[in-house]
Design goal:
The complex is a heterodimer of chains A (about 240) and B (about 350). With about 240 residues, chain A is mainly alpha-helical. Chain A is built from 10 helices and 2 strands. Chain A has a domain of about 150 residues: Fumarate Reductase Cytochrome B subunit (Up-down Bundle), CATH 1.20.950. In chain A, strands 1-2 form a two-stranded antiparallel sheet. In chain A, helix 2 packs antiparallel against helix 3 and helix 5 runs antiparallel to helix 8. Chain B is built from 15 helices and 9 strands. Chain B is elongated. The chains are: A mainly alpha (about 240), B alpha/beta (about 350). Chains A and B meet through helix 3, helix 8 and helix 9 of A and helix 11, helix 14 and helix 15 of B.
C-alpha cells in the first residue's frame, strides 16, 4: 500500500517491515465490553456450579450436616450468577438497538448479500484454511454473528428451563413466570436433562470462541483479542480512504 | 338410596362416638380446622351420601391395596361402608350381568351426582381391544360413566399419566384419563398413591362437595405442591454436600443424602416425606433407598433409577448427557489443537504470503 500523504518515514517503514497503514476504529463500546466480561464470568460460574450440581464432588467425609453448607453455596452461586447473566443479557439486547453499528442487531442476521458472501469467506479462512487473509469485517464477521445469534437462542432456552426448575423453590415473580415449561417438557426429568445437556454447548462454545479469537488475532493481525479489553481494532487504510 | 352418611352408619351399627371420630378425621383430612368439624357433622347427618363408581382398567390394583391401608382405619371402614360403592370390579359382590346392571342403575339414578374413581390407564390403540369389560372397551365405559359424573378422580400414575403401560413404546396406546374426559379430573399420581392422600381427596369431595385446589397438572396442591426433596429429613445433608457414594458405605450408614445414588426426590412432587407410608412408619428415602419418582409423568422412561440424570437416548444405558458432553468437549479440544498445529505449520508461508501481497500493492 502506498504511504502517499503520510510522510517519508512511513514510506521507509513500508519498504522495511510494515507496508500497510492502519486506522484505529472504536468497535466495542464500553457497554458491550462490560456485557462481554460479565457474561464470561457468569457463564464460567454457571458452567462450573452447574456441573457440580449435576455431579457433586466429595469434599467431606463422615462429617455432620450442620458443619458445612458447601453444596448450598454452590447452588446459591449458580442462582445468583443466573440472575446476573439474564439481566446482563437483556441489557445487551437493548444495546443492540441503541449502540454503534458493530453492536447492532443487524450484525447477527446475514440478511445482506455481502454478509452471506462473508460467511463463505470466513469458512474458507477458519475451517478450510485456504484463504488466510483478505478483508474480514471489523465488527462481528457474518458467520460469527450468526453463531452468536444461535448462542442467544441457547441463552434463552437455558434461561427458560433454568427458571422453570428454579420456580419450584421460589415465590418471586420472574421464575414463577416459567412454571408452564415443566409440564410442557414432560416433567422436571426432561427439563433437568435438557438444561444439563446445554451446559456442554457452552463448554464447546467457549473452547472454540477463545481459540478463534486468538486465531483471528493472528491471521488478521489487527488486535482482535485486545479489542474486547480496550475496544479498539485496526482497519487497513485503503487508497483514497483517508 | 337417599340415606345420609350418619343414617347408613347407624344402620350398620356404628356408635355416635364412632361417627364423630370419623367426622373429625374427615374434617382434618379435608384441610378444615377444628371449627370445621361441626360443618362436617351437619353435612354427613343431612346430605345424601354420594354414589361411587370405581373403575378398573389397565392397572395392578396397587391403588386399591394402598387405599385400604390408610392410617385411620375408622375412616377407611366408614368410607368403604358409607360410600355407596355401587360398582367396583375388585370389591363388589355382584358379578356378570348383575354387576353391569348395578353400574347402569347408578348412572341412571344419580345423574350428575355420583363420583367416579378411575384406577388404570385406558388403551386407545386398535380400537381399544386391549382392555375390555363386559364386551365393551375401557374407553367407551369411561366415556359413558364420566359423562354424567359429579367428579372424576384418577387414581395412581396409570390413570394420571399412563405409568408403565404408557412407557415407551406404549404398545397398547395407554392414555391417562384427563386426555379422554372433557371435564376436570383430579389426578392423584403415585405408584401407588399414598393411602392417606387418597382418603383425603375422597373426604374432601364428600365433605365440601367440590374439587380440592389443583395445580396446573390437575393434582391436589395440598399433597403435590412440594417436592419430596423439599420436605425430606435428609435435606440438610444435601445442602452440606454430604452424599452417599455407594450402597452401604459409611455415608449410607450415616444417613446422608441419596442424590448421587439417583434419588429422584428433587424432581418429584409428592407428600411421601410428610405423610409417609404404612401409618406414618417410613418412606423410601428413610429406609435407605432413593426416590424413584413414581408419581411423576414418564418416570419409567427417565431411568435408570440409580442414576440422577436420565440416559442419553440412543447411546446405551450408561451414557448420560455428561458422557456425551465430555466426548464432544474433548473432540472440540482435539479439533482446535489440530487446527492450531496446521496453522503454525503454515505460519511462515502465511507471513510470506501476506508480505508478498503487501509489497506487491505498495
Amino acid at each position: 500500500m502506498s504511504a502517499s500523504g503520510v510522510g517519508a518515514s512511513n514510506a521507509i517503514a513500508a519498504k522495511v517491515e510494515h507496508p500497510a497503514d492502519y486506522r484505529r476504529v472504536y468497535v466495542w463500546e464500553l457497554p458491550v465490553r462490560v456485557y462481554h466480561w460479565i457474561n464470561a464470568v457468569a457463564l464460567v460460574l454457571l458452567c462450573v456450579t452447574g456441573y457440580l450440581i449435576g455431579a457433586p464432588i466429595r469434599l467431606f467425609y463422615a462429617s455432620e450436616a450442620y458443619q458445612q453448607y458447601w453444596f448450598g453455596w454452590v447452588r446459591f452461586i449458580h442462582f445468583a450468577a443466573a440472575f446476573v447473566y439474564v439481566f446482563n443479557f437483556l441489557a445487551r439486547l437493548y444495546w443492540g438497538f441503541v449502540g454503534n453499528r458493530y453492536s447492532s442487531w443487524t450484525a447477527f442476521f446475514p440478511l445482506k448479500r455481502a454478509q452471506q458472501q462473508e460467511i463463505v469467506d470466513v469458512i474458507k479462512a477458519d475451517v478450510l484454511e485456504t484463504k488466510l487473509h483478505g478483508p474480514i469485517s471489523t465488527g462481528h464477521n457474518a458467520l460469527a454473528g450468526l453463531i452468536y445469534f444461535g448462542t442467544f437462542l441457547v441463552f434463552v432456552f437455558q434461561t427458560i428451563t433454568g427458571f422453570a426448575l428454579y420456580s419450584s423453590m421460589s415465590n418471586s415473580c420472574l421464575p414463577r413466570m416459567f412454571t408452564w415449561v415443566v409440564p410442557l417438557m414432560g416433567g422436571e426429568f426432561g427439563v433437568r436433562f435438557w438444561h444439563h445437556l446445554f451446559l456442554w454447548f457452552f463448554v464447546t462454545f467457549v473452547i472454540i470462541h477463545v481459540y478463534l479469537a486468538f486465531y483471528h488475532d493472528y491471521i488478521e493481525g489487527r488486535g482482535t483479542v485486545s479489542s474486547i479489553i480496550g475496544g479498539w481494532k485496526f482497519d487497513r487504510v485503503e487508497k483514497g480512504d483517508k | 338410596m337417599g340415606q345420609s352418611v350418619w343414617q347408613s352408619m347407624e344402620k350398620k351399627g356404628y356408635s355416635r362416638r364412632d361417627f364423630l371420630q370419623f367426622c373429625t378425621a374427615a374434617a382434618t383430612m379435608a384441610g378444615l380446622g377444628q371449627t370445621g368439624v361441626a360443618q362436617v357433622v351437619s353435612a354427613f347427618e343431612k346430605k345424601e351420601k354420594p354414589a361411587v363408581v370405581w373403575l378398573h382398567f389397565q392397572e395392578c390394583t396397587c391403588c386399591s391395596e394402598s387405599f385400604i391401608r390408610s392410617s385411620h382405619p375408622i375412616v377407611v371402614d366408614a368410607l368403604l361402608d358409607v360410600l355407596s360403592l355401587n360398582y367396583s370390579e375388585t370389591l363388589m359382590a355382584a358379578s356378570g350381568f348383575q354387576a353391569e346392571k348395578s353400574l347402569n342403575d347408578t348412572i341412571k339414578n344419580n345423574k350428575g351426582k355420583y363420583i367416579v374413581l378411575v384406577e388404570g390407564a385406558v388403551p386407545t390403540k386398535d380400537g381399544g381391544v386391549y382392555c375390555m369389560i363386559g364386551g365393551k372397551t375401557a374407553e367407551s365405559i369411561l366415556q359413558t360413566v364420566a359423562a354424567d359424573a359429579a367428579a372424576v378422580v384418577a387414581w395412581g400414575s396409570c390413570a394420571s399419566n399412563g405409568c408403565v403401560q404408557a412407557a415407551k413404546p406404549n404398545p397398547t396406546g395407554a392414555t391417562p384419563i384427563y386426555k379422554l374426559v372433557d371435564k376436570p379430573v383430579i389426578n392423584v399420581p403415585g405408584c401407588p398413591p399414598i393411602a392417606d392422600v387418597m382418603m383425603s381427596v375422597v373426604t374432601h369431595l364428600l365433605v365440601l362437595g367440590q374439587l380440592p385446589a389443583l395445580d396446573s397438572q390437575g393434582r391436589p396442591m395440598e399433597f403435590y405442591g412440594r417436592r419430596v426433596h423439599d420436605t425430606c429429613y435428609r435435606r440438610p445433608n444435601y445442602d452440606a454436600g454430604l452424599f452417599v457414594e455407594s450402597w452401604d458405605d459409611e455415608n449410607a450408614r450415616k444417613g446422608y443424602c441419596l442424590y448421587k445414588m439417583g434419588c429422584k426426590g428433587p424432581v418429584t412432587y409428592n407428600a411421601c416425606s410428610v405423610v409417609k407410608w404404612n401409618e406414618g412408619t417410613s418412606y423410601p428415602i428413610q429406609s435407605g433407598h432413593g426416590c424413584i419418582g413414581c408419581s411423576e409423568a414418564g418416570f419409567w422412561d427417565n431411568g435408570p433409577f440409580y442414576q440422577h440424570l436420565p440416559s442419553f437416548p440412543g447411546f446405551g444405558i450408561e451414557s448420560t448427557a455428561d458422557t456425551v458432553g465430555t466426548v464432544v468437549g474433548v473432540a472440540t479440544l482435539a479439533g482446535v489443537t489440530a487446527h492450531a498445529v496446521v496453522t503454525n505449520i503454515r505460519k511462515h508461508k502465511v507471513i510470506a504470503e501476506v508480505h508478498a501481497e503487501e509489497h506487491k500493492e505498495s
